[in-house]
């Protein structure tokens, strides 16, 4: 009798437990930072029978590979935007979790950075006040998102970045702060741990920064800083590449979107749940600011990468500055103010560490040549005040002789000429052009007042530069317009 | 010798027979209680139709759709369908127009598909055939965070309806903010009379017109507004498309699923003003009221004054698909649930959603009576291609 009852109970229990799910292994091309899902994937395997074998790669590189064709069953990247830009048909795609790109800044350095814009970040980086690590944008989605964030904010149109907005290398100031790179978002975290004493910050996903803080490997905790004018949010879509794996894909997506899986992802990896019903942990409730309109063409990404590749080169710019008496009053005051601003603030356009600035002052002849190699804040300060006591001279205006001098010292840099008068001393324009049939440096001219636009334009255009008229706007704006262009 | 013997009579004691184990008190009480509970359970399961499940054949029905998957993934809808022997497994197509593009050439392998609107439905029906059901409808609207709607109101572009949860949007004036007449750059949100702290240009973020029904219908509405409240014709479709193209370039790469992300805690970041369906907004607010007793007033809805009613089509390719079509169209519980998910039913019950909103303590919206006409399918395709730079969908005409 007792045995019968026991048997009955066992039979009933057996009927209640569902049959074991069929075991399947699928291959997944995955963003490198998803290595942190290890424990979550173990639960997934236990509950659904689906084992995901992740093959890690940076998101930008993985998107290129996907567009060219891969042999994986699924893809799980931080975003499918780079794949969309490739113009390929998007595979079925379900967002699984969220994480914004942020700066993790050491607590001691984060003071003035609470409510920052990308321009503030770029400005501090250019001044050598913010040194950071970031992943390589040629490979990694986090690196590319940072470039897009900076460039979109620098263009300042309020619309998605277009290739033509990237004409001037406004990225250079920001990239001055980059001390080390890494192939992917996961590697940048490891690299940060190894080199944390050399730098102030890391550009990475919020999840990476919070995980670093929780790792116990940091000597100084990081604060999460959201660049409030241009947040790039990653939504980690799981994509089905092979239609015959649909059953496994549907099972995985369904499981990942259950509240318990969403909670487990949040607690283990610090990513925000996509399920709004799941109560978020403290650090993940922070409102994160305005989203960025993401560029709509691959050409923009390519243009940004070209600018990024040029960033390693040391910049050199020669300013050829008219100090004849006609500059007295508002003009010379404007010139001095422009130098002070570009040295002390100036956002994306400011002078930056690593740059060499040569000042050539002229009137009837070259009055002074002064070179500032910017290595520190003190150098920037000396540049800010370099013109404040410079005297004007009544000896005439030798534009072409001054430019001839600049070409001899320019090296591989650019020349910016500012003048308000007509040439009445030294070389003639024709003589100058005969002496420099192939001008050695791109030349920009900023003209005010009576300066002859035709002759200036002739020379500037011959070098691939152009003339900017400061008569209609402020000198500072004119300088900003051509700063950093090569 | 006579043996004397004395024999005692055997004595019988009648013992009470042992009580059956089933009649013992120790047994009876717990058994009675458990049996009672079980009976109540069985009655409850009967009432819900669940008890019959193990004895009933469940048909697994495969379907493909975009935003309308919320309906088939709703637990209550799933339960009612299960009770009727149907288990619908939905595959997300990304966007409704993706179904028509049929990149994997497998549309007809599904029992049914459900594009979000009639123009996408026509494309699919004309290419693949199938039996069409028209279960419900939902107007195309903009969801907005409160301060953005208020900024538009201060600008004279939107007008709050009685309760402030809904606004009426002057579509032509709104589009003008993104596409000024004088050819200048679009205004940014922080340049308005009542600025919002956002340096992005003003535009309603929308899914890509190439892939999604809402994106393509929104483009059609914008064209209608820009073209003096007349849908572009064969003659001027290209010119109008070229004219409105800058509006759709502001956002760059279009997002997808705004009707979902808008309601996330990070909704302000992903799209503070975005194109969606009314049912997405109403379903959210009905759920908020059920949970918190009041609607979420941070998120409001803008009804364009040129009204476009989207009609999701259920296109069945198999008897199983047709069965779902009949159930969704006719089963009273499913129709009731559709209302609770914010959909509008057909003309027979055109006021049903309003009644439900009133019943649940939500204000009743006022919709524009002016219909915003979309261009005819070939013109719409031409314009989508021009504006969206997308792969063509063959229009069988």
From TrEMBL, chain A:
Query: Listed GO cellular component terms?
Result: outer membrane-bounded periplasmic space
Q: Which GO terms describe its molecular function?
A: thiamine binding; thiamine pyrophosphate binding
Pfam family name, one: VWA
Name the InterPro entries on file.
VWF_A, vWFA_dom_sf
The reply on keyword Signal is yes
GO biological process terms, semicolon-separated: thiamine transport
State the PROSITE patterns in the record: PROKAR_LIPOPROTEIN
User: What Gene3D superfamilies does its record include?
Assistant: Periplasmic binding protein-like II, von Willebrand factor, type A domain
Keyword terms, alphabetized: Signal
Question: What sequence ranges are listed for the domain VWFA?
Answer: 317-469
Output this protein's name: Ca-activated chloride channel family protein
Q: What organism is this sequence from?
A: Saccharothrix carnea
UniProtKB/TrEMBL annotation, chain B:
Q: What is this protein called?
A: Extracellular solute-binding protein
- For this protein, the parts annotated as crossing the membrane are 27-47
Q: What does the UniProt keyword field contain?
A: Membrane, Transmembrane, Transmembrane helix
Name the source's superkingdom: Bacteria
